[in-house]
Design a protein that fits this description.
The structure is a single chain. α4 packs across α5, α6 packs across α7 and α6 packs antiparallel against α10. α9 links the parallel β7 and β8. The chain is α/β, with parallel strands linked by helices. The protein is built from 10 helices and 8 strands. The protein has a 4-stranded parallel sheet, sandwiched between helices. The chain folds into 2 domains: about 160 residues, 3-Layer(aba) Sandwich (Rossmann fold); about 140 residues, Rossmann fold (3-Layer(aba) Sandwich).
Length: about 325
Amino acid sequence: MSQNPSESLFGVLLLAHGGPDTLADIEPILNNIRGGKGFSPKLLEEITDRYRQIGGRSPLLEISRRQAGALQKELDTAGKRIRVYLGMRNWHPFISEAMGEIKRDQVSRLLAVCLAPQNSRMSVGLYFQKVQEAEKEEGVKTPVSFVESWHREPLLIEAFAEKLRTAMEAFPPIRDGPLPVVFTAHSLPQRILAEGDPYDRETRETAAVVAERSGLVNWRFAYQSQGATAEAWLGPTVESTIEELAAAGCRQVVVAPIGFLADHLEILYDIDIYFRDLARARGIELRRTESLNDSPKLIQALAAVIGRHVAAIETSVSA
């Protein structure tokens, strides 16, 4: 939809990972993720089997579209003249497709927001790189700004805390001390620490602030979903943490994935199947917090982050 050139339209581009709609999509998605470097047939077989176990597809696109739609309604209600777009890094609708829409709509300014609150040059940075590449490919002249991190946004913290309270209340009372909580985030190669990447600090900060907001006294942080490469990845791992809890006599644990906003493979397989089975084999009942998905508090958090950045951009432009 095009607009009157005399009108100013601010655009918000939500960036997400992308996931397969069918099992046949997995191979080209893996090619995109690995930048065309190739992968073993064994890896393809393993990933395909995991998707098969969660229903043969990813719900991420559907959830991301709901998030975008809910955010659009939230911004409209606040009287903001902002149009929300959605672009995926590894599958349709690709970021380049969204940039094509932005060009057709003659958006005057654009703010790119990754649907991952903690910043890393290896994750969020790649999304922003894709935006810049798509700008050139599509010939977009719209000035673009980026939200680099929103890991301490108060409404985001409250959204995580709400889900955590619900999960903890669902457990029957235990007699051997406070219910343990394990906060998790997606691991990255350990070399990012030497490079000064903010990711490790920010994921741990999010966990600590949610723990404080929830009044926790028995919690820890662990990394999950390490990559299938020979290099060292950030730890401690969830697997080693489960072993420690079992050795300490723990029989219940809540996993709170604060590095993720929506259901996808790392939630539905890694936690709901793999970690749960691992814990059960050691006599531990493992439950997790419900993903934020398109919960009202998450949408309000996104709207608050966007509102502040848009106001700052408009102030700088008018100065």
